[in-house]
Amino acid sequence: KAGVTQTPRYLIKTRGQQVTLSCSPISGHRSVSWYQQTPGQGLQFLFEYFSETQRNKGNFPGRFSGRQFSNSRSEMNVSTLELGDSALYLCASSELGQAGDEQYFGPGTRLTVT
Amino acid sequence: GNSVTQMEGPVTLSEEAFLTINCTYTATGYPSLFWYVQYPGEGLQLLLKATKADDKGSNKGFEATYRKETTSFHLEKGSVQVSDSAVYFCALMDTGRRALTFGSGTRLQVQP
């Protein structure tokens, strides 16, 4: 099976702009989660989707949003970008998103805000 | 809330040395525990997991045992290789939240 894919791999945006990142999960996986990785804060959970519904959300401002489509593909959007949003954004998929399920990560999208 | 504490790195070892990376956690209930590895420029790869007390996860020579009494999940490998050089993350997921809580990561450098 193909792994988790994320597009684009690299992005450079300017403060105030918005950005959309895309994630395609492993075939058959219905749960998609997003994480932000920065040198200062480490890996932090953004949100999790299952069957097009957001089931769980981390402690991020409303500028961060996401959605999931009927084919389980997911997008996340960040509006009004700030310098602090520069990070590696990782998407992970699992079959059902249950506690013991293995989450498989994509290669990430490296976002740089200037 | 949940938290994971890992030993600070970098950990520098010679090839074929024994590896231990300490990990302790705080969580309500009975979380599942994971070790992930991240190579430069890549995402996270699942290394091993354990879902209940006394379970031992193992993969590629790495092992970790879920110790509920000490709330620990230390990663071990008997003989490291240069190719094991990477950052290792300990993580937990509790039954209610369905979100991974990660430690800060431990960088391992293996010298030939």
* Strand-pairing-aware structural class of chain B: mainly beta
Give the topology string of chain A: H per helix, E per strand.
EEEEEEEEEEE
The mean pLDDT of chain A is 95
Q: How far is it from the N-terminal to the C-terminal residue of chain B, by CA?
A: 41 Å
| CA gyration radius of chain B, whole angstroms | 13 Å
Shape of chain B: globular
List the uncertain runs of chain B: none
Structural class computed from helices and strand pairing of chain A: mainly beta
- The overall strand count of chain A is 11
For the largest interface in this structure, which chains are involved and how many residues does each contribute? A-B, 24 and 26 residues
Q: How widely separated are the two ends of chain A?
A: 37 Å
State the helix count of chain A: 0
Approximate shape of chain A:
globular
Q: What ranges of chain A have pLDDT less than 50 throughout 5 or more consecutive residues?
A: none
The largest pleated sheet of chain B is described as:
6 strands, mixed
Computed Rg of chain A: 13 Å
What is the number of helices of chain B? 0
Largest sheet of chain A: 7 strands, mixed
String of helices and strands of chain B: EEEEEEEEEEEE
